[in-house]
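Predict the assembly for these two chains.
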Amino acid sequence: MAKPTVAVYKYSSCDGCQLSILNLEDELLDLAGVVEIAYFLEARRQTLPGPYDIALVEGSVTTPHEAERIQEIRSQAKTLVAIGACATSGGIQALRNFTSVDDLAMAVYEHPEYLNTLPTSTPISENVKVDYELWGCPVNKYQLVEVIQALLQKRRPNLPTHSICLDCKRKGVVCVMVAYGIPCLGPGTRTGCGVLCPSNGRGCYGCFGPAPNADMKTIVTAMNFVERYPGEVKGLLTNISNYAPAFRQAAELPGVTPIQTRGDQP
Amino acid sequence: MNQDIQIPALARVEGEGALTVRLKDGVVNEIILNIYEPPRFFEGFLHGRYFQDVPDITARICGICPVAYQMSSVQALEAALQVTITPEVRQLRQLLYCAEYIESHALHIYLLQAPDLVGYESAISLAADAPDLVKKALRLKKIGNDLLKSIGGRSVHPVNTCVGGFYRWPSVDAIHTLVPELEWAKQVSIDTARWAATLSYPDFEQDYEFVALNRIDEYAIYDGYIASSTGKRVDPVDFEKNFLETHVEHSNALHSHTAENHTYFVGPLARFNLNYKKLRPIARDTAKEIGLKPTVRNPYKGLLARAIELVHATDLAIELANDYHPQGPSNKEIKVRPGEGWGVSEAPRGLLYHRYVVDEQGLVRFARITPPTAQNFAQMEADLWALAPSVVKLPQEEASLSFEHLLRSYDPCISCATHFLKLKIERE
């Protein structure tokens, strides 16, 4: 029987999630043994024609060309998995969605007419149907293995959705918000990173996106209590997963101090 | 070759680029290195961010060298805020940088460039015939990633770096237990250099201007003055006066040249050529053993310089790891004040420049970042032209591979290069 085929694509992104595949140093060659890596430009020159059994898509859609190409990739893929914060929420570059693209793009280029960019950075799911989403900046590479394994075994992947806060309690990591008064987005953020920030004595900044069903209103109220400078909570909500609906809405809640620069740009 | 070359998507590089070579009457008439990787406007959205958010955000410019972005940005912001870090922090940052060099150089040598030299389309195919070699390469890369993880929490976008130092000292045990692995990595790095020296490299030399950081007391990676092979020395404060960028039509990245309007070359080859004498003795001995000495003018041999830097980085990492006994606070308290600061460090791919202006609230009011690959683009194009006359005589597929190999030898990081665009308002 032919091996199932896997294709890896890059959209607007930093390459970090694709690199997470290459960072599977102990598993990479085994992986290449059970699936046919049919299209993965960062890793190999050879490409095999579609359709593919699994397409892993890194990055967000930010250009007309990308918006067109994702339709083609969807039609070629049996199962499409969006990997990473850019693909699932638009990524850090979705900050453009809150400002005029003129301010960012047209004004910053010497020759804006050379550019061909969309006014927004959108997750893959806003463009085509996505079968599975792996959150994280970068993705947890073992979650990636789990998804591929599950697809090969024809079962649903086991992707927990509880919040980081629960992981801290399980690991016995001291709560940075309660003990040190540091605003932490952990109660509202999806599990997956292994509580890296609280373990290092800092608050979570939401790389893994919102945990489904998190009560953001209560969480934001608690964070506002310990805000150390104006706009700190807003900064956490408008970071890596800024365009994820739950964070985006929370950032607009009354009581969240806006970030305001005084005067004009020097 | 008797037809145009169209490579719509370059393989085994970081990010997206295309190459078109057009012939007219049997000679190369046009070469277009099209960087279609979309721009992400980091400089635009850093505006208005609190200074302490910056290292987390700039890390996202590049998944392969996030540490470089963090190191250049924290140094620039520390300069702006007039913060002096402790020697212990500097040493841990050097160790973190060593980890990134090990991970990134192992990736480039074995997975990105070497397949061209040994005649494979990828390391995945190579593994079928030489499993031990590829397994060794992956273990070497993993050791770099493990060290990154032990200091920064994870290897891609580590979380522990902050302006003023580190959020928390990594555990002494976590660092010390890696020493035996690093010893293995050092030996494998020496073997890598010996193996790489047996490969045959295309015969192609150019008269480059090399630019790299330089220090009197060490092989400059974390910080230093900017030195050029022309003898010029530039204070990081004057970088923008000496190295200029222009926006060209076929590219979403800016192209750099010197104030004298010359292309220049940054990266491992530049560092090796300019700072050879500052290499750790074992790295210098390895270079001597394989017959590599300055000045190396063959860009394909950047791979050899990377291998020598692997020896240097593993050797330095062992010393820093053994000496790691942190005392006192892991970061300096910061008094917010308005200011401007510059930071330059040597990313695995070359010089990485940052400049920020911070206001009285600690918010970024201006950001300028010049990544290494943007500085190399103009040189890469010049090289493609220089290579073209010999390549047109080759069969089509070989010609295409030859151009691709040249580009890959630069280890271009196209994702980085498109994210920084000069802030200049020009309206008709």
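Chain B has 15 helices and 13 strands. The two ends of chain B are 43 Å apart (CA to CA).
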